Amino acid sequence: MHEMSLAVGILQIVEEAARAQRFQRVRSIVLEIGELSAVEPEAMRFCFDAVSRGTLADGAELDVITVAGQGLCFNCNKTVPLAALYDPCPACGGHPVQPTEGTEMRVKELEVE
Known about the structure:
Strand order of the largest sheet: 2-1-6
Radius of gyration: 17 Å
Shape: elongated
Distance between the termini: 31 Å
Number of strands: 6
Strand content: 25-35%
Structural class: alpha+beta
Helix content: 25-40%
Largest sheet: 3 strands, mixed
């Protein structure tokens, strides 16, 4: 489960922001997770809850915004919705389709005290 190491990374981002901006507590974290990122939102919530115990993010709500997959087809040169990596182009059936959105995971917002 790679979500555990990702959750540790998120906590590090939050702790760095706390040092830089001098806040004491995090109430909520908004994450953008792409549909093509291979990150399960529920597993991420579980892991973040585990790694944040006893930290400034203990009890923080983890809100997940799902980013739809999208890609550029090199065959027909269209930007198309992409349900899974390595899927054929839904417009022409061609390959390859280069993902342009939906592979990311990022901390978008923090609500702090």
